[in-house]
Design a protein that fits this description.
Shape: globular
Strand order of the largest sheet: 11-10-9-12-13
Number of strands: 13
Helix content: 25-40%
Order of helices and strands: EHEEHEHHEHEEHEHEEEHEEH
Number of domains: 3
Largest sheet: 5 strands, antiparallel
CATH superfamily of the largest domain: ATP-grasp fold, B domain
Bound molecules: adenosine-5'-diphosphate, magnesium ion
Strand content: 15-25%
Amino acid sequence: MTTETTRPRVALATCSVLPHLDPDDAPLIGALAERGVDAEPAVWDDESVDWSGFDAVVLRSTWDYSARRDDFVAWAARVPHLLNPEPVVRWNTDKGYLRELDAHGVPVIPTLWLDPERNLSSRAIHTRLPAQGDFVIKPVVSAGANDTGRYQSGEAYSRGLAIQHAKALLVSGRQVMVQPYIRSVDTAGETCIVFIDGEFSHALRKNALLTGPHRPTQGLYKQEEMRRHEATEAEIDVARRALEVAAKAVPGDGPYLYARVDLVVGDNDVPTVIELELTEPSLFFGFAPGALDRFADAVAARVTPAG
Ligand SMILES: Nc1ncnc2c1ncn2[C@@H]1O[C@H](COP(=O)(O)OP(=O)(O)O)[C@@H](O)[C@H]1O
Ligand SMILES: [Mg+2]
């Protein structure tokens, strides 16, 4: 017998468009091999995969689930040893969690929620849209800025497009969020705070993604332009508080393997949560020396018996 057969096996869950993983995640396979762990990509909705054959399944590039979130959550519930686990996925794939963050005093972008069950008329949607400034329409379940559009409240044509966009989402049974467009996204950008195994690891800046109304042919995600960022204490503090609320809502055995908190600059320069990513965030290992090793260590520690 060789020791080969006893090496832990890990699946890195991805989508069919990226069967070999996102290029940022691909080096994980080598980093895990160095730690005695056999890792391989596996497509989440490929029915031929035997998920029970893995010691852990790590969610990575599963970016095509937003139109079928229920299937995705049901799949997550069937996978033994999923990281992050299914209760976290269920809670985090619906941006309704922003209400919980808000209730616990974590700054979030002010949001109006439109419910498909209410069968709102165009007129009723119109009266709910902001009277001033640019605003954003997006579904509560989304990834990669898909189905997200930016509109001008004062321009009738743009307002009309916003109403059409909201209606199309509502008619397909999706709950809709209306938010003021946060201007600092155009100048400062968006900050991503990455945690690995509960510890702050690194931070990035992302440029603005929304230039105008929603257009249907956007592909899997909008192209992001990233750069390394030195996080401020205030940013890390808000991010930690957001994670504390999550940990209370969906407690795990220990810290989450990974977490990313996306922040914008809100009123009075307060770091404000736009999104908490506990499901399938890009972690941008390539921008932060040591981050890939920290992640691989954390995965290996979860599948290698202690001692
Ligand atoms: N209220 C907002 N103000 C400014 N930009 C926004 C706002 N909401 C969304 N965006 C832009 O759209 C992108 C996607 O929105 P986000 O809430 O992060 O959803 P997801 O990444 O899950 O699709 C953000 O990265 C940001 O560029
Ligand atoms: Mg986002």
